[in-house]
Amino acid sequence: MAPEEFTRLVRSLVALGRETEWVEFKHNNAEPQAIGENVAAVSNGAALHQKTMGYLLWGVDDKTHKIVGTTFKPRQTKKGNEELENWLLRLLQPRIDVRIKEGHVDGRDVVLLEAPPALTQPTRFSGREYIRVGSYTKPLAEFPEKERALWRLFNASAFEEGVAAEAVTSDQVLSWIDYSKYFRLMDQPLPDNRKAILEMLCAEEIITATHGERFDITNVGAILFAQRLSHFRQLERKSLRVIVYRGEDRYETIKEELVDRGYALGFEGAIRYLNDQLPQSEEIEQALRHKVRTYPEIAIRELVANALIHQDFLIRGAGPTVEVFDTRVEITNPGAPLIEPLRFIDQPPRSRNEKIAGLMRRMNICEERGTGSTKLSLRLNSTSYHRPTSARRGLTLWRCYSPRGGSAKWIEGSGCRPVINTRACNTFLADVCPTLRFASGWASRKRNYPQASKIIRESVEAGLIKPYEGGSESIRDRSYLPFWS
């Protein structure tokens, strides 16, 4: 690691403002047993919080988080006659690639230990599992809810490797799986014999061959290409539900539709049906009337695709749901997002279900370039829609609000603050703040400097944006950047 990269990483960790379950600050504490327990704890914490690495950082005051330097010399520290690093690696199970780096920040000695996240089971030290709770390292067994959450993460990839139906005949495969639609979506010619069809489905891991000319239908094959998801007991609750309500609450249901087909088969039809349920308006251009949808079709398509692809299939009894109200649409899927919602724009893409995402990308149903959320934000913001995202009770919720006439109405505590991918100032936000912050969805085209200033002030206080160094000193034209830039 180059010195400038080391300094940048240390500063970013110190800027967290507090210790987390995946980062611990130390001054000079070099007790080997405590180090080993903390390594296991931050490794498990990194896995729990979907971080790429856990860290121990020496040379930082754990209360003020100021860089004070350290006298700890890991290369010179031993446990008995054994070097510290080798001793740690020997007692850590499974073996993880722990790396210790030494450097200088602000003229002070700093030591950084990197511990990769646990992958398939909790990291143990000397036979015991640990986790950080607040600023303390504790045995994982004392916190069963965290232990369960870890194991759920470790098993997340098990869904795609799982089997939806075992030892079925070739007739059942061709009856339950819409193979002809698979070849059309993949833009491939349909083979002219049964054997070739089955071989192609096996090559794509939609099915796997077993003994006695029998086949297993994989979860991936069923969830994407099932003629009816209700054929598969563990998948029947994963069908997409579209519910239309009268008014603003769930008191009166007008209609409910269950899309029982595999996602790849039923996606286009589901989007058409959903758009038909959404309100439309008429606009006149050059004496011609034409219908305009209240919500952009590309936004609805992107949101539904995300809900299908990124859901947590291991959460039983819940599936993707679209709920249509008079002035809003709510799209929910099981599983909290893998990326902090405030970082959707700048973070690289992450797929909870990589095989499903890969197949749907090849069928042009979704993309994996990480630009979907950016396009969605721009589309919704440019057309005056409010789009907060939240994770609650293990679910991911997206809301779209329809535009209405009148002036912008401020909704306190909406939980949605501007996260902008470029420099912005009061003047800019005065134009677009209704599209960023107003849960009612009302959008005024008039500039509103007081409301823009209020958004900026609260966002700075919350640490979500920061002043741009070198920008204008004028309050009206002062520029701001996202906190992560």
β-sheet strand percentage = 15-25%
CATH C-level class of the largest domain is Alpha Beta
- Give helix % range: 25-40%
CATH topology of the largest domain: Heat Shock Protein 90
Structurally, the number of domains stands at 4
C-alpha termini separation: 21 Å
Q: Major β-sheet, in short?
A: 6 strands, mixed
Radius of gyration from the alpha-carbon trace, in angstroms: 26 Å
List the quaternary state of the chains: single chain
Q: How confident is the prediction overall: mean pLDDT?
A: 78
Given helix and strand content, the structural type is alpha+beta
Physical arrangement of strands within the biggest beta sheet: 15-14-18-19-21-20
Shape: globular
Low-confidence runs of at least 5 consecutive residues: 368-372, 377-388, 405-422, 428-446
Give me the count of strands. Answer: 24
CATH architecture of the largest domain: 2-Layer Sandwich
Task: Note the total helix count.
Answer: 15
